[in-house]
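Try it yourself: sequence plus adenosine-5'-diphosphate, in.
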Amino acid sequence: MLLELDHISKIYGSLHAVDDLSLTVPEGEWLAIVGSSGSGKTTLMNMIGCMDTPSKGSVALEGRKLEDLNATQLADVRKNLIGLVFQKFYLVPHLTAVENVMVAQYYHSVVDEKQAMEALDKVGLADRAHHLPGQLSGGEQQRVCIARALINEPKLILADEPTGNLDEKNEKIVLDLFRELHQQGTTIIVVTHDALVASCAEREIMLNHGVLVGEKWNDDAARAAYEAAGGKPASTGSTAEGAQSGDTPIGFEDPTKAAKTGAQPLSE
Ligand code: ADP
Ligand code: MG
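Structure, out:
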């Protein structure tokens, strides 16, 4: 397994932002984490991406427990294994698209304009390379961010609401890019509250108030391969209402939304 979460919690005072979650993700999987605002998605993502540490439980990447690593080793994992894409673009406003990609290269101790241009070409932005972020549309800015995240050829892409600010057309361009990366074997974990974006993933898990309340596979072949390799369902030790333990799968329905709209489950 590329990623193993073993009973992880993130606790702020009396708030369990993430409550006793266990989850394994094999290399090459495309996973979506869904749930309404405040359900703990970003907190979970930050723990996976070595940007935050769990209050309880452990996170392992490629079999290495993060809590056993020192600061330098953690920085190396973050740098060599992970590519991050955020909802907010965090581009340097006075640097051009290609220069923004080169900032990421600098962080990886290479500065090679040709390679940065290739990365932009990959996301369809070769002709925008010398524009400033302010001269680019939201979709184009997000594609610069994806080019930037790809610069070290990460095994794992973590994307937090990557299409949150995009119109439909640009959302599709970003999803097509993810599809291509997935086909090339990259592991993708995407946080989203958009059901369409989530449905592109092979598997979805749903959080509510930090608690795992659902898991759903969108790709039967991927599920079969996961189970054949000994992969277990996501589970929680939490006893909160709606919590899903490994052996009692429930329907895939956002409790918050259902309460608000009386909506039926998305499927299943
Ligand atoms: P999501 O990304 O699903 O919208 P978050 O992971 O950002 O949710 O937040 C989950 C919960 O944890 C929220 O109630 C949020 O207010 C709380 N939270 C997040 N970060 C902190 C923090 N640093 N201190 C206290 N509470 C926090
Ligand atoms: Mg969030």
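One thing you can check immediately is this: The first strand starts at residue 3 and ends at 12.
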